[in-house]
Design goal:
Length: about 375
């Protein structure tokens, strides 16, 4: 690594260098207002670190790291009630409960770091590893042993480059792909999008649209979010708890804090039945990219009204209307997301276990613990 490079690890947003947001201008998830959301309302089992990379004395890169204490977790996910899940939970509690993520474990996509100048992958891998070692030592001084260090998420070309350098000995894993919908230039209205669908998927759209009749859909303002905070959290928590796998639960004030900090760049849309909130979805406006965030719903209403599918259509409609270039739908529910046109993008992560004997067999252990995923990709466009 160039000896002119150095880094500083910060534990609070208020002391970040004043050029931080200029360096992070390409990615909302690394800007100080979003980092303030994490600081004020991170999951209770998470601690965040903000990394500044300097060339001489000039800030040229910013990065995020997150420590997770899985011992504080109420559940790792309750959807798959089986022996394998019980084994997985035991292993995580005893051999993988202290995890350091170099990157953002709360969202999907390459949001771990950004540089204001072109950097070679050897330097990037070295900086990542040096920062991970420094944070690991920080916890060691507090008598906390980090079990697993994970570097997430990388697109295939970046992952293959990083493997040539410091990441080479680490276990590379591909969990569920990131579902991304590239919006066509000729989609100026929602009708253009519907017109691009084959008959089968136009019929799906019409059926979903008809099912949601009787539901009032509206964007929520800050005062409404504050008033509905408990109900929003209840709906979010139901969905999160029934996910196949979880490493955190959001704090109750997370969505309110997010709206306060990011204002019009963070949108919460509420779904009401007989004036009662029965679902919501959230989106973040990240330059030309629409990032989907967390959502929640009442299971009974979701089944009757095809609520989740309608949320996906509504996000797509919003993106077209506001001329975004693509929508990041994230992981999970791959098949239904592909039915509205999202394509799977493979993303890699790298990890190693600090215990050298466990690390030796990490590939076998990881493959056996990862929730199984079978799905059929849909092709809805003509």
């Amino acid at each position: 690594m160039n000896s002119n490079y150095s880094f500083t690890i910060y534990t609070t947003v208020s002391i970040l260098p004043n050029t931080w947001d200029a360096v992070a201008s390409e990615n909302k998830f690394l800007q100080s207002d979003y980092l303030s959301v994490l600081e004020e309302s991170a999951p209770t089992n998470m601690e965040c670190f903000y990394i500044g990379v300097f060339e001489d004395k000039n800030l040229i890169g910013v990065a995020l790291a997150q420590y997770l204490n899985l011992n504080k977790l109420e559940s790792f996910g309750e959807r798959d009630k089986c022996f394998k899940t019980a084994i997985r939970n035991f292993v995580f509690k005893n051999f993988a409960s202290h995890v350091l993520f170099m990157g953002n474990n709360m969202i999907t996509g390459q949001n771990g770091y950004v540089f204001s100048k072109k950097m070679d992958f050897e330097t990037i891998s070295k900086i990542n590893l040096d920062c991970a070692n420094e944070i690991t030592n920080y916890f060691k001084k507090q008598s906390i042993t980090i079990h697993i260090v994970t570097f997430k998420d990388f697109y295939p070309d970046g992952a293959s480059e990083l493997k040539k350098y410091c990441f080479n000995p680490f276990y590379e894993f591909n969990s569920q792909p990131n579902m991304v919908l590239e919006l066509q230039n000729d989609w100026k209205t929602n009708e253009d999008y519907i017109g691009a669908l084959t008959k089968k998927y136009r019929d799906q759209y019409k059926r979903a649209h008809k099912k949601i009749e009787g539901i009032e859909v509206k964007e929520l303002q800050l005062d409404e979010i504050e008033k509905l905070e408990d109900r929003i959290y209840e709906l979010y928590h139901f969905v999160a708890k029934h996910a196949p796998f979880n490493t955190f639960f959001l704090a109750k004030n997370h969505f309110t804090t997010f709206k306060k900090q990011l204002k019009e760049q963070f949108v919460i849309v509420g779904y009401f039945l007989n004036e009662k909130l029965v679902g919501f979805h959230t989106i973040l406006l990240n330059g030309t990219v629409l990032e989907t965030y967390f959502l929640g719903y009442d299971e009974q209403v979701q089944k009757e009204k095809m609520l989740y599918l309608n949320m996906l259509y509504n996000m797509t409609h919003y993106a077209i209307q506001n001329q975004f270039k693509k929508i990041i739908f994230g992981r999970t529910a791959l098949e239904i997301k592909s039915s509205i046109g999202a394509e799977p993008i493979t993303m890699s992560g790298f990890l190693y276990h600090k215990n050298k004997w466990i690390n030796k067999f990490i590939d076998k252990i990881f493959r056996n613990l990862e929730p199984e995923m079978t799905w059929q990709q849909r092709h809805p466009f003509k």
